[in-house]
Queue: 4 jobs
Job 1
Amino acid sequence: MNFLIDMNYEVQIAAELQIKPHQVDATVKLLDEGGTVPFISRYRKEATGELDEVQVAAIRDRVLQLRELAKRKEAVLKSIEEQGKLTPELKDKVNAAETMSKLEDIYLPYKPKRRTKATIAREKGLEPLAELVFEQKSIDLEAEAEKFVDAGKEVNSIEEALQGARDIMAEWINEKAELREKMRKLFLEEGVFSSKVLPGKEQEAIKYKDYFDWSEPIKTAPSHRVLAMRRGEKELFLMLDSVPEEASAICQIEKMILADAANSSVEQVRLAIKDCYRRLLKPSMETEVRLLTKRKADEEAIKVFTENLKQLLLGAPLGEKSVMAIDPGFRTGCKLVCLGPQGQFLHYEAIFPHEANRRSQEAAMNVKGLVEKYAIEAIAIGNGTAGREAEAFVKGLGLPKSVIITMVNESGASIYSASDVAREEFPDLDLTVRGAVSIGRRLMDPLAELVKIDPKSIGVGQYQHDVDQNALKNALDDTVMSAVNGVGVEVNTASKQLLTYVSGLGPTLAQNIVEFRNENGPFKSRSQLKKVPRLGDKAFEQAAGFLRISKAKHPLDSSAVHPERYALVEQMAKDVNASVSDLMSSEELRNRISLKNYVSETVGLPTLQDILEELAKPGRDPRESFEVFAFEESVNSMADLKVGMKLPGVVTNITAFGAFVDVGVHQDGLVHLSHLADRFVKDPNEIVSVNQKVQVTVMEVDIPRKRIGLSMKSDPFAERGRDSKSRSAEKRPIAKKTQRQESEGSMADKLAALRGKFSG
């Protein structure tokens, strides 16, 4: 992919991102040379001026946008030139267009058209009449129109002649770039989303009840409501409009087009304006605005998804321990597997702890025996159906206190178990057994296991199936790659799927590494990676720093220090009369190093500081330490919940309007944005993260609708009366009904905010 851009683009991007042009220039060159976002941000800090991953990715995305705009400009100029209508002024206008919509407005009068009303009127010879009327001078309108009445040309009356002239004028008005820009702004600033239920669909569309008679300003409509209304429309339950008041729109057009006079020509133009708006401008602008708002809503939804996914991927790992995993169930029993410290499959059987005494006792004996036989250090229990019951059963067995018993979110485990990846890993195992293996491995290392599953199946998204799928995939790929490379990968134990996301590798090289490892045994050094088929110097440069070899001969092979800096570290060690290993183990030796002595044209203080930090904690895992979590033992179903209860819970999903929390009853509860903290919260990510352990208070239990309302406020009932009054008094001048207070938007993360600048 070619990332080269001209200097004007560099200046433009630098201004948009509030960085220096030379930073953009350096980053683009590195991208063009095949550099990945993680590699550039981690190992090329001097070149980019210490740009982080978000900024590097924003430059990459903006460059691609501008290249697409440039390609479209070339096509537009070529088309106009072929028509013989390209003037120097028009060429300058095209080249100056900053967005695709402005470019298309300029091109519209020259764009090849299908046969329109205006085309037909021109074929009847009515364009001179349209030109005369459009001057809006005082003329004998009927007499002038009479000149164009000719049965041979199918103009049979004065009114037909005037109608044709109005059709032509309507097209002229529609093609005025300045007017279209004003209309676009009006639709965005004053437009209103209005949704109504389709007659007769009230019962079938009950899940969209909030939108049966709903309206709110386009500019403040939050992404989740935009996507909900669009989904309702797509499923043929709702009618959705997104327009401003017609009178306001027509008034603005009249101000730009109508002459300050009162005559019959002006009235004809006035009629043409109304026709233009209703037949041409309104449908066109509504389509554009819906695309723009959809893009914005997509960005917000994708932002929610990627933030949740990142937090889930970076969940605390238990580490290399012998694990028993249980995929719970009632009728078909619980699928139990035992895994070795590296996640290797050791044993499988089905147990039936929830049946009659004999089978329950048999299950208890089997679990105890397996814990002892395989020296089990932790038991992972899926949080699906029968999960709490299975947890209670295991906890009641009197196992050694050293054995960790914990629930694991099993979302997507069934997707994995039926996937090609699972079949490749365990061709001889049943689907349900593979699912249990996935549950156990998730406890050991969430990142290594979750990369095997399509992120959309993990259950942390918001309308993920409604958004632009290419944009979603790109964002999720960025997120997974950032997480994988941020943690680092042990090359001798990593799966093909995990290696795929390492900077510079991809599916083919990941497969080649696994095959080389299987044929030749564990890698003994990073340099040995160069022997892997098709893994050339560039791929090695991009990947090496993110790959770890824990028992390598060279101590730096287990660290994040890049091989290109080994000589530098060896020189540091030599200067303090020590080995590299001594330098890594001794803080006193590291304190004797003066970094300024090692600054060169290619290595600056940022890289030197990174190296010194890495020497202190080589190959450190940036993820938090694992902590055991347990639900309230007396609460196992929604029927056990009572308003006012205070319970421990785990955040499972974050949306623009709040966070969903698992309290152990097989139905997540919602902590609305207004109940996340004692203070005002605009973005839920300010307060919570996926997998975070929280304390919540039960506010509402609606068993028929399977809804649980929760609060994280210190005293959620203290101001309930005042809050309800303030909510009822909340100024929503257009919104007609709402069942709960919702966020009017959430603070986008850095990249989403930057991308937002480029919309349009």
Job 2
Amino acid sequence: MPTRQGDRRPKSSLTVTTPSLLAAALVAGLLGAAPASADTDGLADLRADLDALLADPSLAGGTSGVVVRSLDNGEVLYRNEPDASLLPASNNKLLTTAAALDVLGTDHRFSTRVVAASRPRHGTLRGDLHLVGTGDPSLTVEVFDRLAADVAAAGVTTVTGDLVADDSWFDDQRLPSDWEEGDLQYYYAPQISALTPAANADLDTGVVAVRITPGESAGDPVTTALEPATDYVSVDNRATTGDPWSVGVDRALGGNTITVTGAMPPGDQGFTTMRTVHEPTGYAADLFARALADHGVEVRGDAVRGEAPGDAVAVARHDSAELGELLVPLLKLSNNGHAEILVKAIDRETGGDGGWEDGLSEVELALTRIGLDTSDLELTDGSGLSRGNRLSAGLLADLLEEAPDEPWFAAWSAALPVAGVDGRLEGGTLENRMRGTSAEGNVRAKTGTLTAASALSGYVTGADGESLLFSVVNNGYTGAAPRPVQDAIAVRLADFSRTAPTSDATAGAVPRQRLLSDPAADHLECSWVEAC
């Protein structure tokens, strides 16, 4: 099961292998000296090397589904356990996003409206003001501010009734039924409603950031602040300034009190961590109420949850960016909340009430339309955090092969992480992987990691310009995630030539370097533990 995300020092304290060391290890391990030979069979070399890589001790006792195909001619270049039913981790998001693009389209926008039963007169709106959501994953404080400014611009200065948050576009199930309880306070496991705030520019939904810094002297309380500022979440600060560094940050399930314990040395730079928010609709209402107050709009009643009247008058509206653009933080940073929002949005678009069970059924139907055989597919969530999902590397390869023929492919492929490229919204979860190799800037692929389950699936161009797809799904290994093996496979594919020798059949040693020193990053996506 996923390891518990511990509290960590700031990102700057993580040890990252230098690009030159990683490149050297890959080159030394994979591109070993092989004399040129006129009768070299490049495909035979490739298969021998991939066999050697999959024999690495880090995969002992596990199952590895691996498929490599040419996109140019459809030829299967390599396969190993292609039909094995495996836990995909975040490779599940490839299915969810493809289905969402099929159902919703790349130009789909999520609307958030402010409505009322009547128009304001002389600055007073008699009755309630309603905030109506449809699942926008990009509801930042800036969006709430713009909505509030528009309400004020519409002439509203006073609301005599309540601020009513309407999240009825989705059902009221906040979490997939089989997510593990130990994960639920951490930001990779947020609750979902049709009004789920995004805490930051990365659009992390359903969470609040806690900034913690030491006091001036030993014995002083530490200082805490919530970002964005909200009264919906409270902090019980029990931590003091002192040695050794031992800060803990916990939100008990079922409530919105975050308890900070332990100690932080004087002069420490402090750190920020995120925790999920219980019942995010109320969180959205609080952020909007604060924005209204900032723009001089007084709401005399309370912030409550309810439904807007069918004949309500429009006061303000915000439309999100197009889905094609929103896929970037989803896939680059492996955002679980966004994937689950898409499942509910798919269900609503196809006539449902915005729930998971029917939404996942619609995901399968969409994949069938794309051309996949889903008879052996099992889905229990959209993001891949659930351990109930099962699929094969062959199914992922089928999706990668069919996708280029779809009208949404350009947006989908552009949102995939890119090996070795700087930037959270460029390289994403592959930013620090395969640097200094032929895979850098070449491999576009989705990562995925849970305890004893890891995957990498995507596209790469070989040495002769041949377009290849690959899917690597590793399950059942012991120890750290076998990312070095996955990277070595991807680099070997980037070097693949049908005619020129690129290695000999004994090559394939996996680099021993570890990309990150944080042990949590060995068992979860690096983005989930703030390590990339």
Job 3
Amino acid sequence: MRTPSSTYRLQITGEFTLRDATAMIGYLRDLGVGALYLSPVLQSNDGSEHGYDCVDPTTIDAQRGGEEAWAELVEAAHAAGIGIVVDIVPNHLGVAEPDQNPSWWSVLKEGKDSPYACWYDIDWSRYPILLPVLGEDRDEHLTLVVTDGEAQLDYYGHRYPVADGTWEPGDSAAAVHGRQHYRLISWRRGDTEITYRRFFSVTTLAGLRQEDPQVFTATHERIARWIAEGQVDGLRVDHPDGLRDPGGYFVRLRELAPDAWIVGEKILERDEQLPTWPIQGTSGYDAMFDAGAVFLDPQAEKQFSRIYTSITGDKVGIADHVLEGKLTAAYDLLEAERRRIARLAPEIEQEPLESALAEIAARFEVYRSYLPHGDGYLVAAERAAAEARPDLAETIGQISGRLHDRTDEVACRFQQLCGAVMAKGVEDTAYYRYSRFIALNEVGGDPGTFGISTDEFHRRLATRQAHWPDSMTSLSTHDTKRSEDVRARLNVLSEIGDIWGPFAQGVVDRMDIANRSLAYLLAQTFIGAAPIARERMHAYATKAMREASDETSWTDPNVEFEHEVHAAIDRAYDDPDTVELMRTVLGLVARPGWSNSLSQKLVQLTMPGVPDVYQGTELWDESLVDPDNRRPVDFAACAELLRRSDAPPLDASGAAKLWVTSRALRLRRERPDLFTGYTPLYAEGPAAEHLVAFDRGGAITLATRLPYGLTHQGGWRDTVLHLDGTYRGQLQGLEWSGTVALSTILVDYPVGLLVRQ
């Protein structure tokens, strides 16, 4: 198994291409990176910033550098001893511009007779294919264009094919349109009438039928060549929950890549266990929660609940927000998906059946089941739905048997529906509505769990070592709601509730936004992401309030409310009193925020698993949700700081974080023998609770938790750690043995990385 010592995620775009990545190989080698982890690089839609809308899975994206640049990168990386991991997208292809996707173009032109008809998850019982693309003008601007004898339909520059024999000179566009295998309909009908499986509620991404071996082979041809030619060492699989049979998919992928390191973008809830798939683990959201929650003070939960309720008036807990968000997603956003499932059971009255499916899906505690794995979650969801809606109890009983039968089409599609309901209802709705403590409102997070104890932390990491020692670990990704350093700084607030409460009350009152939960979210964002430019804050606020869908939304923007919010943000920047309040709080949390950042970073880099570093997060990074976290990184500045030969001070430059990151990555790459086990370590003394420590089998990690309280209680004082030998520090180069005072180890930095001599 070609398991990398670590990975470094790069977002490859039209502005930062594969050639730009090649130019970074020397820096990544010096940083200590084991493998370069690339965002999707197969041909995507023109202008795509992310690459998840692949239109041709057989070739490298020309706008990202193309085949020649890919070959150069592979050669340079392998020459430097760096592996390559690629993010692949098996669930869907991009269909926003049909003329850019050869397979979709063929399906639209030839219908069921297309050789690609089996590729897409299309409901052929409802014909023609419905494409929700028309604006409010309907088809008034639909025209027929003939070039070199070939006709196409054009709608504001978007081209659609015309089947052979369906047009003659002089035909109107409307007449020709009516003869095609597809119909262009209003974009507003996408949530209710779409006839192909999509990615969540995104109609420009059409689902693939990877359960068909022929489709798998055809769409993985380029990936198979990567593996056969030794170009790629690992694969990160995007959104396996969207597939009909994720387990079967991973079996085929393992057969295609028997020696590759494979992880899946699987979000685990609470103590949910990953199915026994033939992969190394997840893409790290579960580890992100573990590495961050231990640096939050659980004792502050009641106080922060009181602050939140007092300021916002929101007395609804996260569980109720989640249920409301999921019900909204199931009933409104994903109505077409519910209807498709219900039609598979015509023996049951359709309207109550559709409602029953929505109610069960909304009460599903995890993203989906993988029958028979996860059947217990389905039983619990059915019971909860029947109790909440006794009028649907009989219908739930009628459909229950089919939902539990993994060979039944109803069960297969319901599992896919559950994942979409969870993602849209929780991540994209509830997490923007419930703002008690937004550092917890993260992908794979749990806003209802206000931190974890060190004992719980050690239990989780021991379990990880025992069952998934090669799973990826992450702190920031392209999908996180806020970066690791924003969350680390926010965690300090849990130590200063008496100061934070009055400050937040003042900021929210001054903003004077009708939705006070949103105002409270923005108040936390001001502190967590400071200093944040005004335009970035405005952009974030737009996304946050539209995702919440309380007062406004993406589909029906409330211009008046949005103007109110943006005016409030401007007042926060322009009002001297508000600015002074923010400066005061920032002065309190800045240095302990750096401590939390270094602590969780070192923990993530050395804990069981393969650590990933998201681009630029080796320095301080105050990014928010995408596209903010895809801003260009100043790699030249990173390289310049990395050339330092001595430990830098802990200051605003971020050089200390780069120093800690590079020393940890280099050690993992050069001495993997030091990271083969997991033993919790505990300090003794008056500040023992402020230490998180573990021994990986020769490499000891020391990290400070709750640094604000530690400082105000007099520091480490007589707190000691017992070492079972002589150890050398990798950050300062000093040696210690026996019983050592923590005040002598954790001097310049709040963290230590020790190696047994």
Job 4
Amino acid sequence: MKEASVLLMLIAFQVVALSATSSGISIALPGCPDKCGNVSIPYPFGIGNGCAAASLNSYFTVTCNSTFQPPRPMIGDPSGLSEIIDISLERAEMRVYGPVSYNCFTSNTTVMDNYTSGFNLVGTPFIPSTTRNRFMVIGCNTMGIIGGYLHSNPDLYVAGCYSYCQGINSTSNGAPCTGKGCCETTITPNLTDFAALLIINQSSVWTFNPCFYAMLAEVGWYSFRQQDLVGHLGFINKRAKRGVPVISDWAIRNGSCPKDGATAPMGYACVSSNSYCVGATNGPGYMCNCSEGYEGNPYLPRGCQDIDECKLHKQNSKYTELYPCRNGVCRNIPGGYVCKCGIGKKSDGKNSGCRPVLTQAEQVVIGLSVSSVVVIALACLLAMKFQRRKHRKEKDEYFKQNGGLKLYDEMRSRQVDTFHILTEKEVKKATENYSNDRVLGCGGHGMVYRGTLGDGKEVAIKKSKVINDDCREEFVNEIIILSQINHRNIVRLLGCCLEVDVPMLVYEFVSNGTLFEFLHSNDHKSIIPLDLRLKIATQSAEALAYIHSSTSRTILHGDVKSLNILLDNEYNAKVADFGASALKPIDKDDFIMFIQGTLGYLDPESFVSHHLTDRSDVYSFGVVLLELLTRKKAIFIDNLNEQKALSHAFIMTFHQKKLRDILDDDIIEDEVTVVLEKLAELVMHCLNPRGDERPTMKEVAERLQMLRRIQMQQVTTPNPMRTQYPDGESSMSIASDEMKYQSTNTAKLVLDVDRAR
């Protein structure tokens, strides 16, 4: 990516466009222009040399391009300037025109034109606003991906969405981008370096849609138009000739607010008296604000000037409610005002007006006032009662709408007595009104809270973001199925809450975190013995095999990864987040794929065919097995500081017969060489690019059971305390029950593994 594109996606935002106020307060350095065309340029930004705070950051310098009428302000490197739409001091935001990535094809799917946009904001004061921007994709059967790096974080960030065109003629202009014709997704905070890419199946290019677009744009700026799909670069020529508006947060990045009582450091930007410093809302650094009762530019000496509330009150009636002084004399003071009462009057106690001193006549008025208060209180009580009745009716409607009546009938007919339907009040009490302290995690489908029910039982409550109205009956069916699942290695669905707009699910609470944290967290760097890894792998495989083949209706997990495998206090595996968690089926007529985080677990065959099968879970489980064997992430950084997919690296190493180079050193022992080789072969079968040539999850579970027995027999020694688990418990003591069933002939078990294959 060229430096010329550094600020092409310069970040930007809505903000009060500051110009010189009616009181004559300057927003630019003395002698410097405060506008370029119709756009105000407040300091620390400035037009030309000497007018910007270049010592804080060179990117505060603005170029005013007078070749346009009116002139247009530009910012960035001379080789890649971006046009500024507006700047705000109060919100520390900037809005600019950003570029659009596109791919165009001829009727025979030959590439006609393409452009990939991106930016690198490292070293600039700008970071894209997370709440004010969305990543958007326009086109038929295309996937857009935004990938990049976060501020001071080496891990790669990837997100994206998929847009399709089945039934596009039924989509009206102005529709939101939910997947048909266009799609959108959020971006992460602290994103300083990214590129927007398009992944297109050229064989499915639609004749009326030759071009596909991807962009970072302001929330609410774009809504779907069918004409955007037609013609070569039609969207850009008709709606984005100057680019698309993008909003960024800016701040003084090379510093922080001084601690209370500390002397301000050299180069401190909040130089105006009557100003204060606040930390940046997005990324490192700080920004400056004028104190209450003052307005202006806090980055300039004496830039924050006192607001004359009394003068404003007299000049414009719109300030009457903002600065009230009824029946009194307004007097301005630094940072505020007072309302002085004349003879025979006294303050109303709010510094907003004066009233006469109490007289006998006023006593009558007071009596009438009390009566009025009683009447008003009764009216308020009636209104509150009406509101409660309305709220209760709304809850009942949600309950019916979400399938509550059907769920009750099904529970009675199937005699499901372990599943509970909770009220919204019970859920709020369990989560302390959705307290941030109760948050366990936040994923692509919603927020998960730790809750405590009335009987003291700890649970995990999933508050999903959205559910499609067409899928509510399917959702209830999934709840019925999942509530009947009783497997020791599957997180149990205990109940739900249906009297809210989006139903909430209640699961059993698993206390020891995720397998991902156990393997990769800096807090878990102790040795993990092979038998414990095999135990976790075997239990996880048995759980997946169960939902594939042992339930009344086949359930596909669809998102198998180490983050979705939980561990209890005894390191037993619990598979989570499947079935109803997505709240939306995936089929050939209705397919949307949102990608959050790494792509290391995704079945390549499903990615191309857009079909999810049980063998897709097998592929993803193969990657989890690799994490257990190598203790590397699905997307990891090798010794050359390059990012690689773990599955690809393992396949290359396996074919080169260098298996020891990638396995975790902690489990490489001569006595378990046979087990490691068999595990590697099993992984290769799971990662087969053809789904129908992969084993079933039941076969995978059986092979892991055999290999676990082999491993336990081969490491058996007279000293049962030979291997220790991370919590100090002996591996041999934990495995004692398993040893009761192992064969006395290791060679025979090896033959069993080969036969199972």
